[in-house]
Design goal:
Strand content of chain A: over 45%
Structural class of chain B: mainly beta
Number of strands of chain B: 11
Largest sheet of chain B: 6 strands, mixed
Radius of gyration of chain A: 13 Å
Number of helices of chain B: 0
Shape of chain B: globular
Distance between the termini of chain B: 41 Å
Order of helices and strands of chain B: EEEEEEEEEEE
Helix content of chain A: under 10%
Largest sheet of chain A: 7 strands, mixed
Oligomer: heterodimer
Largest interface: A-B, 28 and 27 residues
Strand content of chain B: over 45%
Order of helices and strands of chain A: EEEEEEEEEEE
Structural class of chain A: mainly beta
Number of helices of chain A: 0
Radius of gyration of chain B: 14 Å
Helix content of chain B: under 10%
């Protein structure tokens, strides 16, 4: 089955700790994205990548970092600089990253602060 | 500035009671408008893409339409399994890169 997997489903962060959210896809898509979803708000773009070893900041990149060493994987690190990290994090992918393409989403990771 | 507003925020319907959800948008260089369905605690599931004013797409009890400033998601004779949050997302080429601008969604509850 082709799709996008995210792990873990729930993640707890302590004060001052960096945590990493995993995103893997086997759709052979070039482009991958990270979004943050807060209650009552639309999804907001954190980072995106259209090709291996290259990525761009989205609208709310501060306090986050990413890497894209493999086509299939796009992990997101929530650093201690992100002061309000509690949210639902969604990873998505699309074929090439052009505007006309459909983005397909993973099941999400809920991050909570202890 | 790119903006998307979905209305109503929440909608309660009886099974079989048809209705429409609205998505009003202002974006730079529209390159497509996407509708997604999202169940609680899950990722959005793709429904439709519309590319030009006048275009319509249908899937089971859902029909999406597009004008230059709005998109509508019409739900005909809904069933309880249609209960979900419906997200609208036009694609904007403003700001130097292509991105989806998501609305906050309409929470639909269909009761038997």
């Amino acid at each position: 089955d082709g799709g996008i997997t995210q792990s873990p489903k729930y993640l707890f962060r302590k004060e001052g700790q960096n945590v990493t959210l995993s995103c893997e896809q086997n759709l052979n898509h070039d482009a991958m994205y990270w979004y943050r979803q807060d209650p009552g708000q639309g999804l907001r773009l954190i980072y995106y990548s259209q090709i291996v070893n290259d990525f761009q900041k989205g609208d709310i990149a501060e306090g986050y970092s990413v890497s894209r060493e493999k086509k299939e994987s796009f992990p997101l690190t929530v650093t201690s600089a992100q002061k309000n990290p509690t949210a639902f994090y969604l990873c998505a992918s699309s074929i090439h990253g052009t505007g006309e393409e459909t983005q397909y989403f993973g099941p999400g990771t809920r991050l909570l602060v202890l | 500035e790119d903006q998307v507003t979905q209305s109503p925020e929440a909608l309660r319907l009886q099974e079989g009671e048809s209705s429409s959800l609205n998505c009003s948008y202002t974006v730079s260089g529209l390159r497509g408008l996407f509708w997604y369905r999202q169940d609680p605690g899950k990722g959005p599931e793709f429904l439709f893409t519309l590319y030009s004013a006048g275009e319509e797409k249908e899937k089971e009890r859902l029909k999406a339409t597009l004008t230059k400033k709005e998109s509508f998601l019409h739900i005909t004779a809904p069933k309880p399994e249609d209960s979900a949050t419906y997200l609208c997302a036009p694609n904007s080429s403003g700001g130097g890169y292509n991105k989806l601008i998501f609305g906050a969604g309409t929470r639909l509850a269909v009761h038997p």
